[in-house]
Each structure stands twice: as C-alpha cells, then as structure tokens.
Write a structure and sequence with these properties.
316 residues; alpha/beta; 2 domains
Length: 316
C-alpha cells in the first residue's frame, strides 16, 4: 500500500482551539511507524488529538510496508532520526525496535506484550515500551471453535500463521481434538509465500481455514489472502471484523480501527510529555462476530441459525 493512499489527514483548520492548547506552541512533533501497512485510523485519531501532519506533526513513514526480514535494520535507521515516539505493529517489529533503542518511547500493537516479555508490567510498563495487547492467542482458539460451529462437517482445518512452529499450536491442537477434527499448519510472510500456502491448502486438501492473528496476514496481505480464498472457494475465519465486512466469510475479534485509536491515544499522551511507565498497556474490551451471508452463499455454506443469532452483524 502506497503512502499517498492512506496519508489523508485532518487539516490544521479542523483543529479546535481547545485541542490546540494541549500542544506546545510552535513545537514540531515526529512519529515514526514500523508496520506492514498504513494505519489510517491511528493517524486520523492523532489529528483529532491536535497532532496534524503538515501543521505540527511529521510522520516518518519510510518503514511502512517493509518486509519483516528488514525490521532490525530499518528500526535502527528510524531511531537514528530521534522520533518523539516510535509506533510498531507486531511482536517482531516491537522486538526490533527495543533492540534498536532504549530511549525512544515505543507504542506497540501486538499479541501479548506481557507474555512475550516486551513489557514487565501492564499497569506500569517499565523501560520504553507500552501499547495494546489484543488477546491474540486466546482468540485464535475461539476462532477455531466458531469455525467448527459454522462448518460442523469440516474435518481438516488449516491453521494459517506467519511463523512455524505456530506459537500456540498445542492449545489449538487440543481444541481440535475436543472437536474431533484435524488441524494442519501452514505459514507465510510474503505475497509469494501466501499464494503458495493457500494453493497448497486447496491441493492438500483442507475443508476450511483459521487465519491466526498476525500483523502480516492481517495487515498488508489481508486483501490478497481474502481474494485467494475466494478463488479457491475456501471458507475461512479471519482476525478483524472489518475483513468480513469487506468480503470475507466470518471474522471474530476486536475492531482494527478501535485498537488503532487506542494506540493513537497512547501516542498522544507520550507526545504531551507523559512517561512510558505512566501509560498502561491497554487491551480491547469489545469483540465482534461478523458473518457475511453473501460470501456464505457464494461458497455454498449454510450458517446455523444459532450462530447467526450470536453474530453482532450479518452482511447480506
């Protein structure tokens, strides 16, 4: 995704005088972003908070869309420019940022910041990292349960991850055993690998796919993955509710736009001078089940009335 496609921000004229007074007059702030795709909602929320690109904010976007293999090198380059805050998405990006700097505050959107030892405490994160933890590993198991309920006849389910071995494979395998189904791992970290993996799922074959939480698979690759599943008529459950609204079959989790807003509010606090230790790690509080009935019809999938009744929304 090119920068110009998501860098549309609120103009300086849209700032209210009350928001403007929260900033230091005349100061220019700098935020660097290390992510696989551009977080438009985060940038919009910063604009709402009074940090507007072209007015008092500079966005260092050169690391948006870089390959994960380049994280370590790029993180060093970003920190050399001494941004006020470094925003990163995913545990690999967070680890690269921490290795690159102990001084620049880091806001990370990742699976489990505490369990991954990216922070020592959630209420009072030490060091230079805070962020939003999205319950990813627990939700991966919940999505397997929902996929089994949606497709009770599916006997072989692909687990699509960005790493092998899959970090929470034992929990997923245990859940699958309880459901009487088999799970088969696949992984990808690039467009080429994603195409190859999905083609292999079709050839294996599998009956459905659980796309595990991933800043890569749920980031820049999510459009390619959704289209490839449609091409092969593979039913799948996805990470972000927005993905089902855009044409995926089923999705369950927090809204991507909401967690981006949470990150943005943390960034705004740090830009205003808060210490990292005083900016607690946050977690999403709402999870949505979205079912796309139009996609279900195209796939020949009949969703049970019981599951439809539990959905937050259905797309006709």
């Amino acid at each position: 995704m090119r920068r110009r496609e998501f860098m549309t921000l609120l103009s300086g004229a849209a700032m209210s005088s009350s928001v403007a007074r929260a900033q230091q007059p005349g100061r220019q702030y700098r935020v660097a972003i290390l992510a696989t795709a551009g977080p438009q909602t985060l940038l919009d929320e910063l604009g709402q908070a009074g940090f507007v690109e072209g007015h008092n904010l500079e966005i260092d976007s050169r690391a948006i869309g870089v390959a994960p293999a380049s994280y370590a090198k790029v993180a060093v380059e970003l920190t050399k420019a001494l941004p006020d805050v470094l925003v990163v998405f995913g545990p690999d990006a967070a680890r690269a940022a921490q290795n690159a700097t102990q001084r620049v505050p880091i806001v990370a959107l990742a699976d489990d910041l505490l369990g991954s030892k990216l922070v020592a405490s959630m209420p009072h994160p030490e060091g230079n990292t805070t962020g939003v933890a999205i319950f990813a590993f627990q939700l991966d198991v919940k999505r397997l349960e929902l996929l089994h309920e949606a497709l009770p006849g599916a006997r072989r389910i692909a687990l699509f991850a960005d790493h092998e071995p899959i970090r929470n494979f034992e929990a997923l395998e245990s859940a699958a055993h309880a459901f009487g189904i088999e799970v088969v791992p696949f992984s990808a970290r690039s467009e080429t690998e994603a195409i190859r993996a999905i083609d292999a799922m079709k050839a294996t074959p599998v009956d459905a796919v659980n796309v595990l939480a991933s800043p890569i698979l749920g980031g820049a690759l999510r459009f390619l993955i959704r289209d490839r599943f449609a091409l092969h008529a593979l039913p799948a459950i996805l990470q972000w509710p927005e993905e089902a609204e855009a044409g995926g079959l089923i999705a369950y989790g927090p809204r991507l736009s909401v967690v981006f807003r949470q990150c943005a509010r943390q960034v705004a606090k740090l830009l205003r001078g808060a210490r990292v230790v005083d900016v607690p790690v946050e977690q999403p509080t709402e999870f949505e089940l979205i079912i796309n009935l139009k996609s279900a019809k195209a796939l020949g999938v009949q969703i049970s009335p019981a599951l439809l009744a539990r959905a937050n929304a259905t797309i006709e």
